[in-house]
Write a structure and sequence with these properties.
There is one protein chain. This protein is an alpha+beta fold. Helix content is 44%, strand content 20%. Among the domains are: 42 residues; 138 residues, Glucose Permease (Domain IIA), CATH 2.70.70.10. The strands form 2 sheets. Strands 3, 4, 5, 6, 7, 8, 9, 10 and 11 form a 9-stranded antiparallel β-sheet that branches. Strands 1-2 form a two-stranded antiparallel sheet.
Length: 300
């Protein structure tokens, strides 16, 4: 009987020890799961409601990139308009000056053909040479070129104001038709004939475009110089290209000293900017064309 009692007591002890270890493991597992769950929950809450320094910096960078992207989009639209305008001007200049259509260039041809880059460059060089030959041939057959010189001599694009089209008038406070190009200058600056010709008219007035000189260059071209102070020529006088004909002033409805310059071809008002490319570098001409197109207010 004693042996049996001892055996049972040992079994009971083993069972109690087993239950104790299992309970401890289960409790520990519960705590571990609870801690993990709370950690995950805390991370989720912190992610939604709190930001680290790195996240804040990334957020600021994203906002800056977004703003810069919008600016780039606006600049792209402006540049697209300018490029489109320059293409139209190129067609117009080539037609007016050389009386022929401007050469068409396929942008895909710049990528090269089947013959490789060398053949592509050679072909492009050949096209350029052919274009120059056509230009010189047209020049040789043209009796009178358009007035291509600047009426104020050397001029920078920063002095270019509003050109032809609807422009806001500082006098009438509304948009009205503007038939010339405003070139900012100082009072008394010399004004030169854009090309040889005959003085067609001299007008002195305190209204409108003020004191004016109109020169007929032949071949359908007429130039008009307005808001002058003093005038050095008379009607019927022959003038040469670059000859001083007047001085810049503020006569008439002039908001500030400047030259209002007009180019007329067969009774049609032209954009004078298109006739300045012979007096400006390519970079200056592009900037001048941009200024003339984007300036919304005239000076008269």
């Amino acid at each position: 009987m004693a042996k049996r009692y001892v055996f049972d007591a040992q079994n009971i002890s083993f069972r109690r020890v087993g239950r104790t270890v299992g309970s401890v493991l289960l409790t520990t597992l519960k705590w571990v799961l609870a801690v993990i769950s709370l950690s995950v929950l805390y991370y989720i809450v912190a992610s939604f409601f709190f930001s680290t320094d790195v996240e804040k910096e990334l957020l600021r960078e994203n906002e800056a990139y977004e703003a810069h992207y919008l600016q780039l989009q606006e600049q792209k639209e402006v540049l697209s308009d300018v490029v489109e305008g320059l293409q139209r001007r190129d067609d117009e200049i080539y037609g007016q000056v050389f009386h022929a259509k401007a050469p068409v260039v396929d942008p895909l041809s710049l990528l090269g053909g089947n013959g490789g880059p060398v053949d592509s460059l050679a072909a492009r060089a050949s096209r350029v040479e052919k274009s120059f030959v056509e230009v010189f041939d047209l020049l040789a057959r043209t009796d009178t070129l358009p007035p291509l010189a600047s009426p104020l001599g050397k001029v920078s694009y920063i002095r270019i104001g509003a050109s032809t089209g609807m422009r806001y008038s500082p006098y009438y406070k509304v948009s009205i038709r503007h038939d010339g190009l405003d070139i900012i200058a100082s009072q008394g600056d010399p004004v030169f004939a854009a090309d040889k010709g005959t003085v067609q008219a001299v007008l002195r007035s305190s209204k409108g475009l003020g004191n004016q000189v109109t020169i007929n260059h032949g071949n359908g071209y007429i130039t008009r110089y307005c808001h002058l102070s003093s005038i050095n020529v008379s009607k019927g006088q022959k003038v040469r290209r670059g000859q001083q004909i007047a001085e810049v002033g503020i006569s008439g409805n002039s908001y500030a000293p400047h030259l209002h310059y007009e180019v007329i071809f067969r009774d049609k008002v032209m954009d004078p900017v298109n006739y300045l490319f012979g007096s400006l570098s390519p970079e200056e001409y592009v900037k001048a064309a941009y200024m003339a197109a984007r300036t919304g207010q005239s000076l008269d």
